Amino acid sequence: MLSTHPPITVPAWTSMMSSRDPGELGFYGFRNRKDHSYDGYAFASSAQVKGAALWDWLGQAGMRTMVLACRRPIPVARERRDGHVLLTPSTQSAYTYPAELKAEVERVTEGYVLDVEDFRTADKAGLLRRVYEKTDKHLKLAKHLLRTRPWDF
Fold first, then answer.
1. DSSP structural state of residue 3
2. Which burial class, exposed, middle or buried, applies to 128 when counting CB atoms under 10 A from its CB (0-12, 13-18, 19+)?
């Protein structure tokens, strides 16, 4: 977490995958100023990310990439989409590329779970159980895709 300032999920993941720092990306967290006022806020989105991400560069080199459970605002490959991408914000949206992969993801995982809900609960044992369930689903999906899809990275 020392590689990105501030060490927050949104700029850290995006910096790691785009090789740009938060200043270049233009956002520093989940919510950012959309203008120079004190009351104009907007959520970080992939539309703000200019330039390529790691999978774009690999795709341009002819490699097939598989991106699994990567958080927004990292953009999906813009020019070449040979890989399989699972992005969010929710499992209620079209969160896979290609779109028809969503049904397979749901079947293999018996209901894909993006993240644990209500993580600020006092029920720590229940939270831990949900974390393990989510992790098991992600691992099951990763193993399935690695066995059934062509990939280089």
1. T
2. exposed
Which residue blocks in 7-152 are alpha helix, DSSP H?
9-18, 22-25, 54-60, 101-109, 124-148
What pTM was estimated for this model as a whole? 0.75
Closest CA relative to residue 85, chosen from 129, 46, 136, 38: 46
Question: How far is Cα 40 from Cα 28, in angstroms, rounded to an integer?
Answer: 15
Which two structure tokens, joined as six digits, stand for 112?
């894909």
Return the number of other C-beta atoms located less than 10 Å from residue 25's C-beta.
Answer: 21
Strand-strand pairing, 31-33 and 41-43: antiparallel
CA dist 32 → 18, 42, 48, 64, 86 (Å): 19, 5, 11, 33, 24
**Residue 114 · residue 96 · CB < 8 Å:** no
Q: What is the pLDDT of residues 70-124, one digit of tens each?
A: 665 555 544 445 666 665 556 666 677 777 888 999 999 999 888 888 888 999 9
